[in-house]
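re: ur question from yesterday

yeah so i grabbed the chain u mentioned. its 303 aa long if i counted rite. heres the sequnce exactly as i have it in my notes:
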Amino acid sequence: MSSPAAKSAWSSKSLGNRFQHQIFYALLRLAGPWPAYGLLHLVVFWYNLRPSMRRNAGYFLTRRFGRKIWPVRFWQSFQLTLSFGKVLLDRAMLGVLGRGEVTVAAEDMDNLRKMLDRGRGVVMLNAHFGCWQTGMAGLEAIDRPVNIVLQKGAGDVDKHYFEHRSGGAAVHLIDPSGPFGGTLDMLAALKRNEIVCIMGDRVVDGDANSVAVDFMGGKVKMPFSIFSIASAAGAPVAVTLIERQGPGLAKVHFADCFELPPDLGKSPAALRPWVQRYAGALERMAWQKPYQFFNFFDMWVKE
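ran it thru and got these structure tokens back, copy pasting raw so excuse formatting
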């Protein structure tokens, strides 16, 4: 479980240490998912006794539900954190036990195939919403290489579902902290007509490559580099949000699909409308499924 940052900047540092995570993994292997879900309730309740946990969950909850008295906010914070923990357990369950089901609507799958038929690859723009970690398992039917842009900090001990598999990862990882922020690797993957999956709701490399857009009644900074890359490659963009529907069950939503004009370059003014379009799609899902939006930090710009 990633630790909510106390400041406006987010951190990928896991809340629990490696040993604590191994307890859940071992419990999954030895007793199955239900005892692990039971232990999760106790752990989440304990952590929500911390004011810092409730504060960090409260940034979004206040935007969504308004200010609430302490018992209500505690319950909301508990529900949000519990939902996040279930997502992480589902991810481990898929990797450790091979249990889990990710569904994609036939129409969305057909649209994805049509986009790939153009030969320019596809940018799947994700967010920290629902089962974003396991949702890519639903792409296995496409039979096309998947590249995931993933940055893990030194304190992040959470394992993605493919990291549990003894046969090695079934996907290619692109490190955005590498040379040119992984841009060359992403462009090369799109040129090979592959899928590139990347998060679009957090700024990881400073404000230089971000723009302020409207989100949940305020302004937030979101990165624009991937939109510039999609424009340069001529690749269509699919805003892909994965809803958790139950234990081990996830549904992929193509919340929006669009193509950018060619050669937009790196102009923030030219790219802002497209970042705003992505933010709008994410906001609609966050309103519909508030306990599946997992940004535990103050992402709003002070005006």
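noticed a couple things. The two ends are 31 Å apart (CA to CA). also The chain has two domains: 18-97, 101-292.
anyway ttyl
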